[in-house]
TrEMBL record:
Gene source species: Geoglobus ahangari
Coiled coil regions in record: 20-47
Any one GO molecular-function label of the UniProt entry: GTP binding
Keyword Transmembrane set for record: no
Residue span, OBG-type G domain: 61-279
Highest taxon of the lineage: Archaea
Domain TGS: residue ranges: 279-353
Protein name: Small GTP-binding protein domain
Length: 354
C-alpha cells in the first residue's frame, strides 16, 4: 500500500470508530500515525518540485486575503490600498501574490492578494500548496466569500487547517523535553480528559520514548499532535462577505462583515476590524538626553525591546547595552530593562547602545 492509500485507510478508520474512553487510546494512535504519514506525503511532493511564491513582508503587519476565485479579493485590495491588482469577471485572474499598503492610525498594514484557493488546495490543486505556504506568513487572515457562496467559509477553513494553519487558536500549552533514557514522564497543571496512556501512545508514535512532558491545558488529541509536530502556525482571522450590493438581504454568518468592495460599502468597518485584530501597541522613543519623539513606533502586542532594536537598525541588537522604560510595562518610571523586556501600549523607551 502506498502512503496515499494508507492515509485514506486511516481517515476511514478514524471516521468509523466511535470516540469514547475505551477507544480513545486507539484513536490517539491512529491520528498520530495519520499526521505523520501526511507529513511524509508532503515531503515527497516537495521533492517533486513546485516553485514557491513567497511574499516579502513589509510594514508593521501583513494581512492576506484568502478566498475562492472571483469573490472579489483583488477588488478589495485595490479599494483598501490603491494597489492595481488586475480584476476580471473570470476565475484565476490573479496568478501570483500582489501586495498593497494600507495606512491607518499610524500603522502601515501590508495587504496581500493571493490567487484563489479552493477545495483540494492542501493536496496541491490549483497551486494550492504554494498559496498555502504564502498564507502561512500572514499576521492576520481575511477569509473572503461572496453573497452567493457563504458555504465556502467552511471549505476554506478546512483547507487552511489541512495546510497546517490554525485559525483563532492559541498554540498548545505543551512543553516536551526529549531525553536519552528514563521513560516518559507526563505532568500536568490542570486535570486532563485524555488518559496518560493515550498521551504516551501518541508520543511513542513519534518515536518519543523518553522525556519530560509538561501539559498546561486540557489538551485534545489533535492539539497534542500539533504540539509534537511543532510546525503549525497560529493566525487570527476575520470573515468577510463581499458583493453585498447584489443581495442586500443575505443572511450574514455570525461575526462576518458584509461589504461591497465595488461600491465601497462598509470598508471602514473592515479596516477598523483589521486594525483591532492585529492588536498593535504604540511605543514612543526618547533618545538619550533628548525629547520624546512625537511619532510612535507601531509594534504587535507581546513585542520586546529586541523588536524595537530590529526596527531601528540591523546592528542595534548587537550593540544594545540596556534600555530605560517609562509606562505600564515597568514597576517604576525610568526602570532599567534588558533586551527581552516585554513592552506595553504607550511605553516610552530610551535605548543605550555601545
Ligand atoms: N457587484 C459586485 N461585484 C464585485 C464586487 N467586488 C468584485 N466584484 C466583481 O467580481 C469579479 C471578480 O473580482 P476580482 O476582484 O477579480 O476577484 P478575485 O477574488 O480577485 O478573483 P481571482 O483573482 O480570479 O481569484 C469582477 O468582475 C469584479 O468586478 C462587489 O462588491 N460587488
Ligand atoms: Mg484576483
Amino acid at each position: 500500500m502506498d502512503i496515499l492509500q494508507e492515509i485514506k485507510r486511516l481517515e476511514e478508520e478514524i471516521r468509523k470508530t466511535p470516540y469514547n474512553k475505551a477507544t480513545e487510546h486507539h484513536i490517539g494512535r491512529l491520528k498520530a500515525k495519520l499526521a505523520r504519514l501526511k507529513g511524509e506525503a508532503e515531503k515527497q511532493r516537495k521533492k517533486t518540485g513546485g516553485e514557491q511564491f513567497a511574499i516579502k513582508k513589509e510594514g508593521d503587519a501583513t494581512v492576506v486575503l484568502v478566498g475562492y476565485p472571483s469573490v472579489g479579493k483583488s477588488t478589495i485590495l485595490n479599494a483598501l490600498t490603491g494597489a492595481k491588482s488586475e480584476v476580471g469577471d473570470y476565475d484565476f485572474t490573479t496568478l501570483k501574490p500582489v501586495p498593497g499598503m494600507l495606512e491607518y492610525k499610524g500603522a502601515r498594514i501590508q495587504i496581500v492578494d493571493v490567487p484563489g484557493l479552493m477545495e483540494g488546495a492542501s493536496k496541491g490543486r490549483g497551486r494550492g500548496r504554494e498559496i498555502l505556504a504564502a498564507i502561512r506568513n500572514a499576521d492576520l487572515i481575511v477569509i473572503v466569500v461572496d453573497v452567493f457562496t457563504l458555504h465556502n467559509v467552511d471549505v476554506l477553513k478546512r483547507e487552511l487547517y489541512e495546510g497546517g494553519i490554525r485559525l483563532d487558536e492559541r498554540p498548545p500549552e505543551v512543553i516536551i523535553k526529549k531525553r536519552a533514557t528514563g521513560g516518559l514522564n507526563v505532568k500536568s497543571t490542570v486535570p486532563l480528559s485524555l488518559d496518560e496512556e493515550t498521551i504516551k501512545g501518541i508520543l511513542r508514535e513519534y518515536k518519543i520514548h523518553n522525556g519530560d512532558v509538561l501539559i498546561r491545558e486540557d489538551i485534545t488529541i489533535d492539539r497534542l499532535i500539533d504540539a509534537i509536530l511543532g510546525n503549525r502556525v497560529y493566525i487570527p482571522s476575520i470573515t468577510v462577505v463581499n458583493k453585498i450590493d447584489l443581495y442586500p438581504d443575505v443572511e450574514i454568518p455570525d461575526k462576518a462583515i458584509p461589504i461591497s468592495a465595488e461600491k465601497g460599502t462598509n470598508l471602514d468597518v473592515l479596516v477598523e476590524e483589521i486594525y483591532r485584530k492585529l492588536d498593535f501597541i504604540r511605543v514612543f522613543l526618547k533618545p538619550p538626553g533628548g525629547k520624546v519623539e512625537e511619532e510612535p513606533m507601531i509594534l504587535r502586542r507581546g513585542a520586546r525591546v529586541e523588536d524595537v532594536c530590529r526596527k531601528l537598525h540591523r546592528d542595534m541588537v548587537e550593540n544594545f547595552k540596556y534600555a530605560k522604560v517609562w509606562g505600564k510595562s515597568v514597576k517604576f518610571d525610568g526602570q532599567r530593562v534588558g533586551i527581552d523586556h516585554q513592552l506595553e501600549d504607550g511605553d516610552v523607551l530610551t535605548i543605550y547602545a555601545k
